[in-house]
Design goal:
Elements lengths: L1 H5 L5 H23 L6 H24 L6 H9 L7 H20 L1 H7 L5 H4 L4 H23 L5 H13 L3 H25 L8 H21 L1
């Protein structure tokens, strides 16, 4: 948003560089604020939510002072959309996945151990905090690249892994590829529904997924509590 609202003619390369820099910097701030003798997931999530609200306020400020002609473009991007996207937009995401997917696959056993508890990885000799920081930094970089391509489609990251776990079990060697396929399928289905339900008007894919994902997430929370 800072690039779009402040830099005239900022190209795709500048957008991706700014997104990666800001995404990793935000991750670093969240990790630093959440660190207290270690990086506990619950504390990390809560600090992340707080930083998210702060950055939402900054985004609103940038939106209010932006060129009015840029406002529809920014709103559409914040809603998450595939409208007007071309192959160069996809190419950056594909390149990031080609680099990251083998690395994630190689670290699948580490993910299995991290998901067990806090003690088992340490007993087996894993440097838990270093591993967790590396995995989260990789996730932040992938999220930044994907947001540049299609905007904010946040609920995919909540729905797809839970569906994958329900389908193939708890082994991350199986969860990762299935979650990637399910995430892509969800975006395609949401985009199709958003283009057809109220045609000729359109709903962005991010809003469509949120409409379906929010009730599913509430149901999932109720089920886990039970």
């Amino acid at each position: 948003m800072a690039v779009v609202t402040s830099v005239a003619g900022g190209g795709r390369g500048l957008l991706i560089a700014a997104a990666l820099t800001a995404g990793l910097a935000t991750f670093g701030v969240v990790a630093l604020l959440a660190w207290r003798g270690g990086l506990l997931p619950d504390r990390f999530v809560l600090v992340g939510i707080g930083c998210g609200y702060a950055l939402s306020a900054l985004s609103t400020f940038l939106l209010l002072r932006a060129d009015p002609w840029q406002t529809p473009r920014i709103f559409t991007w914040l809603s998450g959309t595939t409208y007007g996207r071309t192959f160069p937009d996809v190419a950056w995401v594909a390149a990031a996945l080609v680099l990251a997917a083998p690395l994630l696959w190689a670290l699948s056993r580490h993910l299995d151990l991290v998901a067990v508890d806090e003690d088992t990885p340490r007993i087996l000799g894993m440097r838990l905090e270093r591993t967790r920081l590396g995995l989260l930094a990789l996730a932040a970089a992938l999220a930044a690249v994907s947001v540049v391509a299609v905007g904010v489609v946040g609920f995919v990251g909540l729905i797809a892994p839970h569906l994958a776990r329900a389908l193939v079990g708890a082994r991350h060697g199986r969860i990762i590829p299935v979650a990637m396929l399910l995430g892509g399928l969800l975006v395609c289905v949401a985009d199709l529904l958003g283009r057809s339900l109220i045609a000729p008007s359109q709903l962005p894919a991010g809003l469509m997924i949120a409409l379906v994902g929010a009730p599913y997430f509430v149901w999932l929370l109720r089920r886990s509590r039970g």
